[in-house]
Design goal:
0% strand; homodimer; DNA-binding; mainly alpha
DNA sequence: ACCTGAACACCGTTCAAGT
DNA sequence: ACCTGAACACCGTTCAAGT
């Protein structure tokens, strides 16, 4: 309940539609534009919120590399210079995009008895939300959370671990390491499926690429790389959810062992 | 011994010096350039090796963002188009840079009795070599190793774990997860110190930035973020070696527990 | 205060033309 | 076969000028 307090999903209204009834009617040719060549989308004055939402639309449709000041401005029917009245630079825009996305993440009420499972739940939740927005994790990796929603999530993760009896030093280190691991996992996953506009195209491309890699590894000289060649099948399972669950389990076991001095199993 | 077989350190000769005796003498003004305005560096015909070495020089001096086809070409006294006779695109150049850097990594002979410590040793070695080349880890994260030196390292890691009795499936998952963690750690570390040409400048900038972050966290409303505020000191230790050792220890304990069914301690 | 056109100093990549 | 100048279609950011 209280965990959704700060959630803001305005970005999902997107698409530029004014209301439910407006289903992209053609503009009557006799109605001239009010002043100059401005597009309909540019009518409303710019705000930070409108800009972030436009950037998010570009991200979801085309990936982080497509999120340029020029492309976002185009989405709003204006030029790149106009954005600098609201954001000092592109990094500031990326930060706000990341926090708006972080708003989608919901947290459980800390339950001391279930803290290990809850740490995993939150990690999976962060991963899924990140994965829902292409390669946004690239903007998260290596940054210190400062936005309200990123702070809310960090606070929630710490609360769960502290409730479970994890000492402060261990909880802090775990928060940090786990964040690195989640971001890295999502970035790897996004890189695999980055080509191809549609999801089907991306899936097909990944399959073709992985098959080429498998052939390459199989053709490697076995006397030089005996383990690599022998373990092709195990190695090719990368990118799967299995890798993430494996690493996640390692982390939580380890945190628990640090918390209580010995592993319970 | 055999681990250094493929090592190639030619990149470290760098700087454009021809031999030990040539200590940057001024060019006599009466000696006209041989044909046109070509610089001395451009005299030798281009090869893939010369290009990769030039790119590595730019990387070490200015970071990965400075490694552009134009900047590398400039380093060689030519134009960007010339590089495309030797590399299909920038990604191919980055791959070869990464593999040349990976050549610096040395591996221990697998010792079944010490496999856990050896896994850690190799992880630390990879981290140190990556850290020695700015943010090159950004080019490693999310890519499948294909170059000879990257393959050599993966093979070595697998050999150590297999010698220690780690089952193939676990070894493959661990290799993958550990790679993600190392790359992410180095990227985070590099982002912290990315500003400032000299190391002293970078260090000073990081200190200033971290102090600002500390103040920001301390000023946060304690009723909303009780754990974050209470744990500022623990959280600010990020980027330190402690975080890496913590995560590394988690991984190795976890691998061992998967290998033998239960943790020995 | 907010917005804009034009410019500055860059990108990766291509291609016809040279040797 | 290798190299090049020039061009194409982009970048982030600044700034004087407009409203």
């Amino acid at each position: 309940m209280s965990s959704t307090m700060f959630v803001d999903r305005t970005a999902e209204s997107g698409g530029g539609a004014v209301g439910d009834a407006s289903t992209e009617l053609p503009v009557p040719p006799w109605r001239k534009p009010r002043k100059s060549g401005r597009s309909a989308a540019a009518r409303r004055p710019l705000t930070r919120e409108l800009i972030v939402e436009a950037a998010l639309r570009v991200l979801d449709a085309e990936g982080l590399d497509a999120v340029t000041m020029r492309r976002v401005a185009q989405e709003l029917g204006t030029g790149p210079a106009s954005l600098y009245a609201h954001f000092a630079n592109k990094d500031e825009l990326l930060e706000e995009m990341l926090d708006l996305i972080a708003a989608e993440i919901t947290l459980p009420e800390p339950d001391a008895a279930r803290w290990q499972e809850q740490v995993k739940e939150v990690a999976r939740e962060i991963r899924e939300v990140w994965r829902g927005h292409r390669d946004i994790a690239r903007a998260s990796l290596g940054t210190i959370p400062t936005g309200p929603n990123q702070l809310r999530i960090a606070e929630g993760q710490l609360a769960i671990m502290r409730a479970g009896g994890v000492p402060p030093r261990i909880a802090a280190l775990a928060l940090d390491s786990l964040g690195l691991f989640i971001d890295a996992d999502v970035i790897e996953g996004a890189m695999m499926g980055e080509k191809g506009a549609t999801n089907e195209e991306a899936h097909a491309n990944v399959a073709v690429y992985l098959d080429q890699v498998r052939q390459y590894f199989t053709a490697l000289p076995a006397e030089r790389y005996p383990n690599l060649v022998a373990m092709v099948d195990e190695l090719m399972r990368a990118g799967d959810d299995e890798r993430f669950e494996f690493g996640l389990d390692l982390f939580v076991r380890g945190i628990a062992s640090h918390a209580r001095g010995i592993v319970s199993g």
